[in-house]
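Work Package 3 (structural annotation) set out to generate three-dimensional models for the target panel prioritized at the project kickoff. During this period the team completed the workflow that converts sequence records into discrete structure tokens, so that structures can be stored uniformly alongside our sequence database. As a representative example, we reproduce one entry of 396 residues exactly as it appears in the project archive.
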Amino acid sequence: MKKFALSTLSLALLGAAGAAHAQSSVTLYGVIDESIQYQHNVNAKGDNLWQMYAGNIQGDRWGLKGTEDLGGGLKAIFQLENGFNVNNGTMGTYNGSSKLFGRQAYVGLEQDSYGTVTLGRQYDPLVDLVQPVTADNYFGSTFTTPGDVDNNDNSSRTNNSIKYASPVWSGFQFEGFYAFGGVAGSTGSGQTWSGAATYGTGPFSVAAGYIRMDNASTFAGRGGSLTTAPGWGTGATSDGTFDSIINSAYASAKSIGIASVAGQYVTGPFTAAIRYSNAQYKADASSAFASTERYNVAGGYLGYQVTPAALIGLAYTYTHGAGDTSATYNQVSLGGDYNLSKRTDIYLLGVYQHANGTQRVNATTTQTAVASAADYGNPSSSSSQEVVSLGIRHKF
């Protein structure tokens, strides 16, 4: 990252008013993650796909974040973060629409003794505290839940939110989070609320949390019509998490509730982690499905730091959907990452998934479950699929 002390000139360039302070700063940062990727079985014909694929370990991004010292240990903080696709230069798409600062956009106050309050478009507490204790933290999308049904890979961000993060007290920290639906006469329409906590001491850390994301409360507000099923519409404060055929038929859910817990133990060059989550996609009278679909996810990860520059990792993820339909996805992921410098690394990632059971395709159709590895989104023509990525990541 590059840090610039603000001067009167830099403030003018940023369009801000006021004098510069030595205690204030703005950081420009970013990530460019690019790969050559092979996907096996990506359409009804069973064809294979070779492509350039961006954002395997981390999504491509650039951003600005800054602080201003207000005195007495109090600081004003902000962060603006844009997601983009390095292959074509387009902005990132979230819940079907492109946003200039679609990853994060918030402002707030931070005090060392009392914690931090931020307001805007933000990550939820499970992403902040639980996800870092899982395999996704080390190897990204290739190691995440099939379809990202439990938002382990941070497919969803939340608008109109206020978040409180406590200080770290002897290894313990918690966050609380609420997003206003903003509908007159229906305060809870499209709201999101969440809480999570983490505790770490020595080599051991554990985290747990829950998030509830509501869709808009009316049929029209969810993008529905008399002839089409409603979707996860603009009335929801949180983005949808519908990354593949595994859960895309449940985009008309009235609400999504996700409970997640994870633990990690580090000894010498080894890191071992386990996790469990339960995601429930609940229906109402306007949904295109009748019964709640529940996904139980269990995963394990083992990482080995071969050298200070080289990391290898192995993960297994078990996902079982039940309620409306029943399907099981067994997934094995393998990865290696090598740091060429503090800012540049190369990686090789692979994932295999096998599916069985029944999937919902739309409001009236189900089918024998097909694989859709990790959260890449291209369904297989059969019960299995493999994806391999050879890439490079640069941070600035």
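Residues 1-22, 219-228 have pLDDT under 50 and may be disordered.
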